[in-house]
Design a protein that fits this description.
529 residues, Na+/H+ antiporter like fold
């Protein structure tokens, strides 16, 4: 009987999963097929579809905190950390650190006090609500930045803040949840100490796992095994750190940064690194498709309507507090000598501070015995819905009006043209060097060469035209050359380690030297940047 019940449960879960996956992938596909839908980020389109399902009372899957934090969150954090360049993050570390740490504290207080003053919620419950709403989730906005070609600095700050403030928000929630339960007293010294332990365990375990896997991947070259190791590292680090009492979010971010910036450069050849990157891109798309659909599907319109006043105050508090965080800490960051952020970039960072899955997971994690739990859940869902739809759908308008849309389409076209020229030149060299078959007319070889030469000429004209219209594109040539040289150096070290001629990791020596050379070339005007 027990086996039959378990088998039936597995079958139902599989059916639910397939339904969710079919709906989410259908929406994502339709968003690519019809031009009007392309104006809307597919994640927001999924939320809208989920809202439609909720409106007709079709519930796909119950969204639990465990599902978000343990299943969905690790791959999303790892993928973002894997793709963010440490060099870019290091340059923006001051604003990212301020937004992720002080920004979370200001957000919690800035939301909690108005809620406790103007609603019936007590201050301890309001603090839990503030902690739940302090985690930003700008997946849609960052995707929009990349598609429209927004500046790298703006994208890095937005993504870096989200990576770290998720961990800080979760830690803050854990520290605050004991107060209304009566099992914890708030003291600054104790809070700082516990915060240090949470973060320290996350960073420590993340470093051990990240550098350990980096060392392992230098010993062999099996792309599928290396790809699997990154997946194990994401989930394994999260579970180990949580079991030890630390912040699993910080642990996953740490291991993702190390493997993406160090392990993949030292221990993986370029082909393997591309395979692993494409795998994580697919996994992030897959998970996001499910998460955003389920967010919309979980909305309870009847319950939200009963707490409309609370939701309105929470929305106003979140938006206004975000103004203080971004403009205040942004100004402080500029004074401290961090990455300079002008008022236009700060405006987009303010408006692009969406809330999403982490906020919902924290709200659902509020203990059932606490009075006010349902109000917290309703307020969080209301704020998430507002930020995703109202702010998410208008971010492109802000980017256009503030003239922050970059030259990404031109850069992409230029990169593709460079790749075509290289490929066609290799084809031409092959035609000129091969042993010609006596069965093939020599005239045919000459005809093929003329065709290839004609295509090369056409591509070179396209490259020249793009360079004349966008002189800054010339810097891409140096960047690509730099990447190729660093890859050759890193591959050589990995080859020596596999052969037993080297017994420790060596960081690429050329990386810093070539960066300085590119900057010098740009400064001297030998190349336009």
């Amino acid at each position: 009987m027990e086996a039959a019940i378990a088998e039936e449960a597995i079958k139902q879960n599989l059916e639910q999963f397939l339904i969710v996956l079919s709906v989410s992938l259908s929406v994502a596909t339709l968003s690519r097929l019809f031009s009007w839908f392309r104006r809307i980020p597919y994640t927001l389109l999924l939320v809208i579809v989920g809202l439609g399902l909720a409106f007709v009372n079709v519930r796909l899957v119950n969204l639990s905190p465990e599902l978000i934090l343990e299943i969905f969150l690790p791959p999303l954090l790892f993928e973002a950390a894997w793709n963010i360049r440490w060099r870019d993050l290091k340059e923006s570390l001051v604003p990212v650190g301020l937004f992720a740490v002080l920004g979370v504290i200001i957000s919690i207080v800035g939301v909690a006090f108005p809620i406790s003053q103007f609603t019936g919620l007590s201050l301890p419950i309001a603090l839990l609500l503030g902690a739940s709403l302090s985690a930003t989730d700008p997946v849609s906005v960052v995707a929009l930045f990349r598609e429209l070609g927004a500046g790298k600095r703006l994208t890095t700050v937005m993504e870096g803040e989200s990576l770290f403030n998720d961990g800080v928000a979760v830690v803050a929630f854990i520290l605050l949840v004991g107060i209304p339960l009566g099992i914890g007293d708030f003291s600054i010294a104790d809070t700082i100490s516990r915060f240090g332990i949470f973060v320290g365990l996350g960073v420590g375990v993340g470093c051990l796992v990240g550098f350990g896997i980096s060392y392992l991947t230098q010993r062999f070259d099996f792309p599928l095994v290396e790809q699997s190791l990154t997946l194990v590292s994401a989930y394994g680090t999260y579970l180990i750190v949580e079991e030890l009492g630390g912040s699993g979010v910080i642990g996953v971010v740490t291991v993702g940064l190390i493997l993406g910036n160090f392990g993949s450069r030292i221990g993986m050849n370029p082909r393997t690194r591309l395979i692993v990157s494409e795998f994580w891109e697919f996994l992030a798309f897959f998970v996001n498709s499910i998460v955003f659909l389920l967010i919309g599907d979980q909305i309870n319109f009847a319950s939200l309507s009963q707490n409309i006043d609370l939701i309105a105050i929470a929305i106003a508090s979140v938006v206004l507090t975000r103004v203080i965080v971004i403009y205040g800490l942004g100004y402080l960051s500029n004074l401290l000598g961090g990455t300079f952020l002008n008022w236009r970039e700060l405006t987009v960072l303010w408006w692009g501070g969406l809330r999403g899955g982490v906020s919902i997971a924290l709200a659902l994690s509020v203990p059932v015995i606490l009075q006010g739990r349902q109000e917290i859940i309703d307020a969080v869902f209301g704020v998430v819905l507002f930020t995703l739809l109202a702010q998410g759908l208008t971010t492109q308008f802000f980017l256009e009006k503030l003239d922050l849309i970059g030259d990404q389409p031109q850069r992409q076209e230029y990169s593709e043209s460079l790749a075509r020229r290289t490929a066609l030149n290799r084809v031409l060299n092959y035609l000129e060097s091969i042993d010609r078959s006596p069965e093939i007319d020599p005239e045919f070889y000459r005809y093929q060469q003329q065709l290839v030469k004609g295509e090369i000429k056409s591509v070179e004209e396209t490259i020249a035209s793009l360079q004349n219209k966008n002189p800054q594109l010339r810097s891409l040539d140096l960047e690509q050359l730099r990447e190729e040289l660093v890859d050759i150096e890193a591959d050589t070290y990995a080859e020596y380690i596999r052969a037993g001629r080297l017994n420790r990791n060596l960081s690429p020596l050329l990386q810093g030297i070539l960066d300085q050379a590119i900057e010098k070339a740009i400064d001297e005007g030998s190349i336009v940047g």
